[in-house]
């Protein structure tokens, strides 16, 4: 029997701090007019010192689970697509798995820059459709404010922080993720990168002095690439699933730049009202932009049961890709809304459990530390 990966829950988390173009214009040589005209961005969110990629991801994931009515204990897989992981390792997904109390889940990060959410959705949906997993939580989460040079006007005006999550569950009813296409062209890797901090150029005084731990971007090159691939990826994913553009109800593009979205609309010969756009309020939140837009599209009444929706993105790598969904979920039931108020308890229990596990490791080390069986004679 055919299996489908349905989207049954969705949630987002945004820092409260709003940074407007006017505020930025006080610290770098830019203006609200320039930013709005070239990008469509008016403001973005910036994480507080206590917020991290994992904390935003955890908030979004718990909201998505509450909406799906799925207990964290039932979760089998956590994927975090991110360009700003907390560490090179451990994976941010493992931190999230621990904080939400997904005690039975496997967890890993996925790195495909701004296309990361489309990639992660493709992976999770395939693991569900093959029967390997019953469910997965797919998260896009970023604190890009931490890797931006706030003195570089060509990049600092573009990005923002946030997280969005979807819960995918197996179903025998047609719907959910119908098709995807993902691509990469590593020859364009230098157009957008974080030069230092990896194994090729480990962090050092020199890399910091040269600002190599900040985002480096050739904006015009990325712009040209983006406008080439958005329409092509949309057409490709539709062809794979056997649909045509007129059968698509909504396109939710990666929110990087209003002009890039308009260029894609023009190439597809579609009016802008077929696209969901919120780049004006959040800037480019990389992997988080598509799931945040899905949450807002649903809240705005732009997603209905049966709708066909294309998600399409591009990013560093270079990477690009699209996914075709059939929306199957209704609004969260009242019981799920009630569960939202229980999120604090879920979090507290997960925290307590994590503490107890840490403690038990310490106790084990104390008693067996030196003499413990490490496999050596
Ligand atoms: N304020 C004022 N002037 C600026 C600013 C600014 N914030 N930034 C650049 N300028 C200046 C430049 O210095 C340049 O001046 P010059 O002509 O004297 O040299 C002039 O504006 C034009 O610069 P361009 O780079 O040609 O401007 P453009 O119209 O291409 O817009 C932008 C720049 C917005 C970055 C655009 O190229 C773009 O959106 N590119 C795609 C970026 C993107 O989407 N990146 C994310 C990819 S997803 C991921 O993986 C993270």
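-> sequence recovered:
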């Amino acid at each position: 029997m055919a299996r489908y990966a349905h989207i049954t829950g969705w949630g987002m988390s945004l820092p409260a701090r709003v940074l407007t173009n006017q505020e930025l214009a006080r610290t770098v040589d830019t203006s609200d007019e320039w930013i709005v005209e070239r990008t469509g961005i008016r403001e973005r969110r910036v994480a507080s010192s206590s917020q991290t990629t994992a904390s935003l991801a955890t908030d979004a994931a718990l909201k998505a689970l509450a909406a799906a009515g799925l207990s964290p204990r039932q979760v089998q897989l956590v994927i975090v697509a991110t360009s700003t992981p907390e560490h090179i390792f451990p994976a941010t997904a493992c931190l999230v798995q621990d904080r939400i109390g997904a005690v039975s889940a496997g967890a890993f990060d996925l790195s495909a820059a701004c296309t990361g959410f489309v990639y992660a959705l493709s992976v999770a949906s395939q693991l569900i459709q093959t029967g390997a997993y019953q469910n997965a939580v797919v998260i896009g989460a970023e604190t890009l404010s931490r890797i931006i040079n706030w003195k570089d006007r060509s990049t600092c005006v573009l990005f923002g922080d946030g997280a969005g999550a979807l819960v995918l569950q197996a179903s025998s009813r047609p719907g959910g993720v119908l098709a995807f296409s993902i691509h990469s062209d590593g020859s364009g890797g230098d157009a957008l990168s974080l030069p230092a901090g990896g194994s090729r150029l480990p962090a050092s005084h020199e890399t910091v002095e040269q600002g190599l731990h900040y985002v480096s971007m050739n904006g015009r090159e990325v712009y040209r690439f983006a406008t080439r691939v958005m329409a092509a990826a949309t057409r490709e994913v539709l062809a794979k699933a056997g649909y045509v553009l007129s059968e698509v109800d909504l396109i939710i593009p990666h929110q990087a730049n209003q002009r890039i979205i308009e260029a894609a609309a023009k190439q597809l010969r579609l009016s802008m009202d077929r696209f969901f756009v919120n780049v004006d309020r959040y800037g480019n939140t990389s992997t988080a932009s598509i799931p945040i837009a899905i949450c807002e599209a649903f809240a705005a009444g732009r997603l209905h049961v049966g709708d066909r929706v294309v998600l399409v993105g591009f990013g560093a790598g270079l990477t690009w890709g699209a996914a075709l969904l059939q929306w199957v979920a209704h609004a969260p039931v009242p019981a799920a809304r009630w569960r939202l108020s229980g999120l604090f308890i879920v979090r507290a229990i997960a925290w307590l459990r994590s503490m107890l596990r840490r403690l038990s490791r310490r106790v084990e080390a104390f008693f067996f530390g030196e003499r413990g069986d490490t496999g050596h004679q």
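The radius of gyration is 21 Å.
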